[in-house]
Amino acid sequence: MTALLPRRGLAQILALIVILAVDRVVSPQFFDLRLQDGRLFGSLIDVLNRGTPVALLSLGMVLVIATRGIDLSVGAIMAISGAIAASLADSHGLPVVLAAALGAGLVCGLWNGFLVAVLGMQPIVATLILMVAGRGIAQLITEGRIVTFSSPGLVWLGNGAILGIPMPVAIALGMLILTGAVVRGSALGLLIEATGGNARASELAGVGTRAMILAVYVWCGVCAALAGVIAAADIMGADANNAGLWLELDAILAVVIGGTSLFGGRFSLILAVLGALIIQTMNTGILLSGYPPEFNLLVKAVVVLAVLLLQSPKLSGFAGIAARLRRTKA
Amino acid sequence: MKGLPPVLITAFVLVAGFALCAVQFPNIASTRVVGNLLTDNAFLGIVATGMTFVIISGGIDLSVGSVIGFTTVFVALAIERWGMPPLVAFAAILALSAGFGAAMGAIIHVFDLPPFIVTLAGMFLARGASFLLSTESVPITAPVYSTVSDFALRMPGGGRLTAVAIIMLVIVIGGALLLQLTRFGTNVYALGGSRQTASLMGVAVGKMTIKIYMLSGLLAGIAGIVFSFYTSAGYSLSAVGVELDSIAAVVIGGTLLTGGQGSVIGTFLGVLIQGMIQTYINFDGTLSSWWTKIATGVLLFAFIVLQQGLVALARRPAAKRAGAAT
């Protein structure tokens, strides 16, 4: 468990508490929870529920970024898997639908991983291809329409509840625990970090860096596909145009807020998910406060800049110099 | 000369593609269609010219689409609501967008941050700012707009070379000259080749970075003005995703995304290829417009693989020579 709970992370937890407090001021009922039809309702649950897609994306993204990569195609993968799930939902059983949608995510991830690990492309460029083409593919699957469905199984995935917890939240929690157990319960996390820290040195030290890179892109694709299925189940339809639009940026933002360096080499799953929750808490707060939702983008921009400046190697350089000066004075 | 082979391949793809289109739909090979192609893609050509400089220098600018959106809204509001004369509004927005680009360049250089994420923040900021100005479409009725929209040079065959197309061609030619013939252009290539080497050779890396992103911001501003001429309106959601189209055009045009190689002319050809695919789909009528995206993706893939191959080929003799020397 100590491996899952990061030493750093105080800043993120404090930020979340501050934003929650602001939300409480803006909307006095913010912390109210009530149980109805075996499901919890309230603004907090809403934050968790709405934050699920980005939280799932950030689970995959954080591993990709830990290898010094980036995956721009997750929004497009969401659109593809959502389109597949929606088109199959009414004619096939839930297991087939899920297998097809997640399988599509796996194939997309393999493609990205192949381009980066085997062909040696820059991750931004490699995933840009699927980001551009993927939405077109999703449109072909839905034939340009918004496909709706009424399959109770799939709808339950988006709107049902288990032990009072909404299904999307339960799924995201399950994925977090699964990913954490696999990555931190074994040496895998360390190997991924080693790949991001210095791929060549790791290769020489016997780490299968290509396999690592391939694996993280595949996992990222699967997480994105799951997010796409949940997003489609939530609205009982697939909109290839808008499903997951710009969510890749939110996912990257969540990872960056979570303190994972874009230069690779270290990562924290929990903090990335916390980053996704911070973003969603801000969004919900802005909505509740009655400001136009357009403020979201401005607030996000300011947050990205602030976090970046804190992460900047130059600034930590200054901090290091300041610390050294203080030491010499003492 | 090293950047030449990919450009030749781009030119070949364009000519061959155009010939194929013309065989199927003879009407495509007319100056009317070509004129429309230039007009419809004028803003993309302008913004992709700026992107070419940024990418050759080893950076990337994701904010350009948002800057175009902001520009259209700002220009529309300035002229229609705030009563600014159009030329003053243009000057103001160009100063603003150039300053915005320069600020991003400064942050990238001073704090040593990845351009990708800094310009991503810039993208959020510019789009958010345009939403703040107005969320609805603002029509522009100033007389300058109808004058400019109506202006066109007649080409033989009935085609019209519109004002926005002329602006784009002038900027593409100017950009090509700036990149190939000036010290500024040489420095851009040097930065993309190796930042450290360039710095050791006496290139003022910081100043260059700021100037390059300033140029990209300025051209995005001009593209925004052209876009507002094209649609006679300002809308905060206009030009969403243009940053991707322009990056795709730059890559298809043979510019190396890792920097150091490329050309403005190649980018121009890349823009024309994208426009050609769109035109073909319009002529065909039965294909869904989503094939544009898929075709662009396939072309992107093909060109990136090609470049990887060329780079690997270029490195191999060097490695062999190094091996022989030791």
What can you see in these coordinates?
With 330 residues, chain A is mainly alpha-helical. Chain A has 2 domains: 10-27 and 39-291, ABC transporter involved in vitamin B12 uptake, BtuC (Orthogonal Bundle), CATH 1.10.3470; 298-330. Helix content of chain A is 72%, strand content 4%. Chain A has helices at 10-26, 43-66, 74-89, 94-118, 123-142, 152-159, 167-184, 188-197, 199-204, 209-235, 247-257, 269-289, 295-311, 313-329, and strands at 34-36, 39-41, 147-148, 161-162, 165-166, 237-238. In chain A, strand 4 and strand 5 form a beta hairpin. Chain A is globular and about 60 Å long. Mean pLDDT of chain A is 83; it is low at 1-6. Chain B has 326 residues and is mostly helical. Chain B has a single domain (4-321), classed as ABC transporter involved in vitamin B12 uptake, BtuC (Orthogonal Bundle), CATH 1.10.3470. Chain B is built from 14 helices and 4 strands. Chain B has a two-stranded antiparallel sheet. Chain B is globular.
